[in-house]
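note to self: the first set is below, dont mix up w the second
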Amino acid sequence: MAVTRSVAKKSARTTAPTTRDTKLLVPFVWEGTDKRGVKMKGETEARNANLLRAELRRQGITPGTVKPKPKPLFGSAGKPVSAKEIAFFSRQMATMMKSGVPMISALEIIAGGQKNVRMKKMVETIRTDIEGGSSLSEAISKHPVQFDELYRGLVVAGEGAGVLEVVLETIANYKENIEALKGKIKKALFYPAMTIAVAIIVSAILLVFVVPQFEEVFKNFGAELPAFTQLIVGASRVMVKWWWLVLAITIGAIFAFIFFKKRSPAFQHFLDRIILKVPVIGEIMHNSAIARFSRTLAVTFKAGVPLVEALDTIAGATGNTVYEKAVFRIRDDVAVGYPVNMAMKQTNLFPHMVVQMTAIGEEAGALDAMLFKVAEYYEQEVNNAVDALASLIEPMIMVIIGILVGGMVIGMYLPIFKLASTI
């Protein structure tokens, strides 16, 4: 009796010769049995079905069904490559290169394990370029969206110093820490946004479905309604009659906000400046920008990138245009001979502790080590602030919704109380 066993991506055993042209390969799914009668199945790239059958027979597998892999109806192009995937790619490359695996083999292994189609194709393209004689920095420079200027600069520095695997591990650590910090920031902003959204949805439901029921009752009273009740009833009539217009304006405002935020540097700078002044949230954004600045500068400086060039590269990594402009100012001051700590002090954005630790690091010749400590401290501050915000927002949501719902309930019952008092 045959036993069924799935074989996931038998790439090590069922790949075509290494001299293959990847552009001509087609993914196939196949089923077959080995010499023991055990059923096997897998997914392999090959030029055509006949060559794949021959390869399977060579490996002792009697092929049954061999057919091209069906394309999904949706998302066939794959999702965009995420920063987390780039961080994991860096970690895998560093680990395998440290273990002595050749770069091309490492890239082939990484490509074979990718579920994201776009990521898989990108890694295969990088491998093909390196096989053609390009360096890793030249290969990844063809993908500037996934590998930003900072990443490419660090790889160039690592190649020049002959410590590419060490630099890749540093990049992996950096990317993982930055992504964790971004996650915390998104969490911090998610709670207030959810509070506002829930409040708007609850108010809309009450105005559209609940208030009109009370309005029918009030018509039988024959008395003038209190001003507060009239306000709520008026808002309800507008929502019931013009709900489509209100919905269109709301959606249009959201799209306009997103559009101008992405396309207008002036609007983005205005938003960043405003959010830094918001209580609690502003402090989190300040600490986040300082942490990202410190960690990014430490990584680039440790990799051997010249200080002025490093400052020019990391400006956009702060995540806030206010700090981005401050970093450019620091770069200009350092370029004419000012110490980093003095240039930081002139911006009036960095706390005294950060400036002092930077000064100590410069004097001791350990600027990168001191900046790593600053980054760790402020990352912990962000973690604590986000946790505190989460604890604060939960009761605030209840209070805001309670005020909205309670206000409308009181407004609806005021005529009943007034009528009862006249009886």
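second set (the one i keep forgetting abt)
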Amino acid sequence: MIRVMLVDDQAVVRAGFRFLLEQADDIEVVAEAANGPTAVELARRHRPDVVCMDVRMPGGDGLAATREIVAGEAAPAVLVVTTFDLDEYVFGALEAGASGFILKDCEPEELIDAVRRLADGHGLIDQAVTHRVITEFARRKAPPAPASDAGGRLTAREAEIVRHLARGLSNAEIAKELVVETSTVKSHLGRAMAKVGTRDRLQTVVWAYQNGLAQR
């Protein structure tokens, strides 16, 4: 079972998400919180696999909570559920270590799929905001370190795959472009993530932009 915690200051939103998620046989909602500090406490107590996190909440926003939650041992993945596709809070959450973003008006199946993807170690940004969020995030960052320094830990092939990942390509698309097997891409990407210390694809893209391996 995928253990999920819901964080939103509106009880009706939490109730709606709980109802939708628990329609899936492999998802269980183990805790709910109405603000950031409570979310941090409950995450430590219940150890969910995925946290569905609102960002604008009275009594403690989701940014600080995300930062604290992902900093812990065996940290869950944080899925930011937002109303705004280019909200300043989205960029803050990306820097804080969120693993995915989805809009509150998504279809039920999209929410369930997002939770499953994050539980499986895959980052996610809602398709409606993918390019805009990553591009704007990269534009706002300070000038990166030279790629040769940042990418020195990676082999040439690993760095090449990370660059393609930052372009938004899937494993299958990268494999086709490099004329290799998809399993080979997955293996190289896994080693690259282990070397640079990222948990998922989304945070690996962030790392690539921050360290000059991705084109702005």
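remember for set 2: The radius of gyration is 17 Å.
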